[in-house]
């Protein structure tokens, strides 16, 4: 009986260890993504702003991480424009 309990304890320790490793890996990945977005977001916001203002013909995104950030910025800008238009329509 004690051998069975010993194996259960070792199994639980293995699961806890795996969870700790998975947690660390997820945190590292999220930190990298946040750092990448902080680095790329200002240029993407400028590009989208210039495009919407009409002073830029197209928007170039070379790497996939640039495209991801550019897509987030574009969706945020679209959401703000829709919200602004809805507020303007409500005021009329």
Describe what you observe in this structure:
By secondary structure, the chain is mainly α. Helix content is about 85%, strand content about 0%. The protein has one domain (about 1-90). The longest helix has about 50 residues, at about 1-55. The model has no long low-confidence stretch (mean pLDDT about 90).
Concise synopsis of the structure shown:
Helix content is 87%, strand content 0%.
Provide tags for this entry.
92 residues; mainly alpha; 2 helices
Tally of helical runs: 2
What is the helical fraction, as a range of percent?
A: over 70%
Distance from first to last alpha carbon = 78 Å
In what range is the share of β-strand residues?
Answer: under 5%
Order of helices and strands: HH
Give the helix/strand layout.
Blueprint: H1 2-53, H2 64-91
Helix pairs in contact: 1-2
């Amino acid at each position: 009986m004690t051998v069975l309990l010993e194996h259960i304890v070792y199994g639980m320790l293995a699961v806890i260890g795996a969870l700790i490793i998975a947690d660390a890996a997820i945190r590292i990945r999220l930190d990298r993504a946040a750092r990448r977005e902080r680095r790329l977001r200002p240029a993407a916001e400028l590009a989208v702003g210039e495009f919407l203002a009409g002073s830029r013909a197209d928007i170039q995104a070379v790497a996939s991480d640039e495209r991801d950030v550019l897509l987030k910025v574009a969706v945020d800008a679209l959401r703000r424009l829709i919200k602004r238009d809805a507020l303007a329509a409500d005021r009329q």
